[in-house]
Design goal:
This protein is of the alpha+beta class. The chain folds into two domains: 93 residues, OB fold (Dihydrolipoamide Acetyltransferase, E2P); 110 residues, Bira Bifunctional Protein, Domain 2 (BirA Bifunctional Protein, domain 2). The chain is built from six helices and ten strands; from the N terminus they run E-E-E-H-E-E-H-H-H-E-E-E-H-E-E-H. Strand 2 and strand 3 form a beta hairpin. It is elongated. 16% of the residues are buried.
Length: 259
């Protein structure tokens, strides 16, 4: 079994349980007779502990050799911490390691995988897969997902249908330049990426879909100023002018942060 719990799940109620955890090594602390490991996955961090009295010398040596972002799997006993950490959801417990397996050794990361990292923008974009492990980036992705689901659930409850419109269309006279895609089948001809979600509104309305929505990407070849190159809109047709107020009330009841 890859894991029995994720790294954000264990609480004091889990004390005395045998568990299996897997994740990245966030940091290690070596006091000679005792080693602590912060094990991280997308759900949180759990502290692991190894000491001379309860662990073998071979196990301690393996723990000391672990580098940051090395992927490991551990099996052990959940015990109550002597010094609890109120700043962590798992701060009341730690796992006394009985078995430790290195799943994938990692090289030294080019920047620290922490909230306040020492990596510049270009470096983090180059190693985006490492940057995504950081809480600020991860929380932004989670936030975007939650907002999208709130929008979808609310509009669906109001009788709207989510309709996905094509990404390759004929060029339309908009205010910005098109992003174009050459046609393989027709030499010298190009498709355009849609600049606005309204392009297919008339087609859908004539087809009888008077209430539809989509979370749509709009591609405009613009300079990177305060307006972004690719934006996401909620495109909707509505018969009732009070929907915007209802959106706000729905988001407020759902404790959405941006309200």
């Amino acid at each position: 079994m890859y894991r029995t719990h994720d790294c954000g799940a264990l609480r004091l109620a889990n004390a005395s349980e045998q568990v299996t955890l897997s994740g990245w090594v966030s940091r290690t602390r070596d006091k000679g007779f005792m080693v602590w490991i912060d094990l991280r996955d997308r759900y949180g961090i759990t502290q692991l502990v190894l000491d001379q009295e309860r662990c073998s010398a071979e196990l301690l040596e393996t723990a000391r050799s672990l580098g940051r972002e090395t992927v490991i799997q551990v099996k052990g006993l959940v015990i109550e911490r002597d010094a609890k950490n109120a700043g962590m959801p798992t701060g009341e417990v730690e796992v006394l390691v009985a078995e430790l397996k290195v799943l994938n050794a990692a090289k030294l990361p080019p920047f620290t995988i922490e909230d306040q990292t020492d990596g510049g923008d270009e470096l983090r974009m180059k190693y985006r897969y490492l940057d995504i492990r950081r809480n600020p980036v991860k929380q932004n992705l989670i936030f975007r997902h939650k907002v999208s689901m709130l929008v979808r659930n609310y509009l669906s409850d109001q009788g709207f249908l989510e309709v996905e419109t094509p990404y390759l269309i004929k060029s339309t006279p908009e205010g910005a330049r098109d992003f174009v895609v050459p046609s393989r089948m027709n030499a010298g001809q190009f498709y355009a990426l849609p600049q606005s979600p309204q392009t297919f509104k008339q087609l859908l309305m004539v087809g009888g879909l008077d209430k539809y929505f989509q979370l749509v990407k709009c591609f405009r070849d613009e300079d990177l100023t305060s307006r972004q190159t690719a934006r996401i809109y909620t495109d909707r047709l509505r018969n009732v002018v009070h929907y915007p107020r209802r959106y706000f009330e729905y988001f407020r009841r759902a404790h959405c942060p941006f309200t």
